[in-house]
Amino acid sequence: MFKVIPLLWVLTFALVSGCSWVGPANPPNATVAHVHDADGETCFICDPSKRDAGRLWCEEHDRYEDRCWECHPELRDADRAYCEEHGLYEDECPLCGRVPEEAPEGASGDASGARDGEGLFCNEHQVPEHRCGVCQPQLAAGLPPGESLLVRLPSERSAELAGLSMGRPSLVDAHAAAALLGEIRYDGNRLARVTPLADGVIATVRVDVGQVVRAGDLVATVNSPAMAEAKGRYLVARHTEQLTAKALERKEQIQLDGIGSQRELDEARTAYDSAVVEASIARQGLLNLGLREREVAGLGDDASSSLPLRAPFAGTVVSRTAVPGAAVTSGETLVEIANLSQMWVELSVPEELATGIGVGTEVEVRVRSSRREPVLGNITWVGPVVDERTRLVRARAVVPNPDGMLRQGMFADVTAILENLPGSVRLPSSAVHRVGDLPFVFVQEEEDLFEARRVEVGDRLDDDHLVVTAGIESSDAVVMDGGFTLKSALLASRLGAGCADD
Fold first, then answer.
1. Around Cβ 323, how many Cβ atoms within 10 Å?
2. Is the pLDDT higher at 216 or at 82?
3. Most buried residue among 56, 340, 395, 405 by CB atoms closer than 10 A?
4. What are the φ/ψ torsions at residue 11 (nearest 5 degrees)?
């Protein structure tokens, strides 16, 4: 309900402040012109910005529509004396010299003067004029979500005869989301490229593509001269360490017997310490080539050139180029092993959405080649750079892949969940209608009275339903099917079938 200034007070202010009438003696019969004594003074007649928002204005007679008795004589109070000369009630006409101290009851203006404080009333459709969707369909374009216009059908049986189907919306978990394009990649933190650490020739290959391996499993062996040399160096160093240890032991015994010299004992200890260092260096060389501690400890006198290649963790062999007899160089990839229990999704985020997406943002990933339920994951990285050419920001999400549905190189439709929207409901798409470019639903208020209510629409679901995020509640009686009849009634005046009071 709008608060307005009673016409009596406006006219009184106009007389006191110097706003005077210019023109015919009976202003309502012609457009009113007026002047102000003070420069820069304005009033609601000459300044539209001072008029009450949402209250209809009579352009012909320069006054509010609900106070224009010339256009709407049916609204005039028959029990109040009327000044025909000036087009006002006698007790409100300051031009006749009768200015009451207070506005009479019923003349205050809450956009009233019509019916129950509702402003101008549409007698044809029995609804307030400013909410009559049949008379004022153009008002639909300015409605925010949750606001509505009213549509009155011809009779209480009209809804039944038109075959309108009613129902209640069902609550659904919904959210504000951003649609992104993604590409499936192996998890880079769970991907290994098995390579030889020395040049050689492939002797054996123990795995094939698709095979599942455990951590430490042997995948291939390479005959490498570098391995033979490293083993020989280690065996010599270990033997030297053993000899110098025995020599030191003898020198220490001789020293205890008082026969040997201190210089000979120091030389023996120095030789032993040097042999220990050489053996440690040679041992580390074998570990660097891929041998494990227990393999080095159990090496014995084996000086073969066999270089083993092992799986660093459990996973699946996703690529293999190794073939027996092929010469390979250090660092050349022979086998790729990936842990497929989770995957990366490489994302391209438009610049305008990048500020709303961060580490931890939940995502739903739908693979275009599959009809399964979306996979849920989280964004783990958002790039710091906007591509100058595409204006996109790179990002990455991690998603589980327990059944192996996701594969390297797949394209995916990704929904980034920006904000949860509690209270959202789902409706069949037949219940949502477009008026102009805006979505509306029809909600029953009485047997023959319906609201055309503005709503906000979210995702389209797989079962031809829509998520409505704002504008209606689960307790509303919504027209599920047949709403085209109401939409036609709402837009009838645009085809020349509007309200006779218009």
1. 11
2. 216
3. 395
4. -65, -40
Residue 341 has pLDDT above 80, yes or no: yes
Q: Which residues of 282-391 form beta strands (DSSP E)? A: 306-310, 315-320, 327-328, 335-338, 342-350, 362-367, 375-386
Helices and strands (H and E) in the chain: how many: 7, 32
In angstroms, the Cα distances linking 282 to 230, 275, 302 are 7, 11, 14
CATH 3.40.50.1980 fits 140-172+426-495, yes or no: no
Please report, for residues 252, 324, 436, the alpha-carbon distance to residue 256 in angstroms, rounded to integers and kept in the order given: 6, 60, 110
pLDDT score of 105:
41
The pLDDT score that the predictor gives to residue 113 is: 37
pTM tops 0.70, yes or no = no
* Ranges for all domains in the chain classified under CATH 2.40.420.20: 140-172+426-495
Residue 64's closest CA among 102, 111, 3, 13?
Answer: 111
Residues 235-289: pLDDT tens digits? 999 999 999 999 898 888 888 877 778 888 888 899 999 999 999 999 999 998 9
3-state secondary structure of 155: coil
Q: Which residues of 109-137 are buried (b: 16+ CB within 10 A; e: fewer)?
A: bebbbbbeebbbbbbebebbbbbbbbbbb
How confident is residue 88, by pLDDT bands cut at 50, 70 and 90? low
Q: What would the two tokens of residue 473 be? A: 């509640």
Nearest to 109 by CA among 77, 69, 67, 72: 67
Distance from C-alpha of 372 to C-alpha of 374, rounded to nearest angstrom: 6
Distance (Å, whole) CA 251 – CA 412? 76
Q: What is the DSSP string of 26-61?
A: -GGGS--EEE-SSTT---TTT-GGGSPTT--EETTT
Amino acid identity, residue 242?
Answer: Q
pLDDT in tens, 95-141: 554 443 443 343 333 333 344 444 677 777 888 888 887 877 888 88
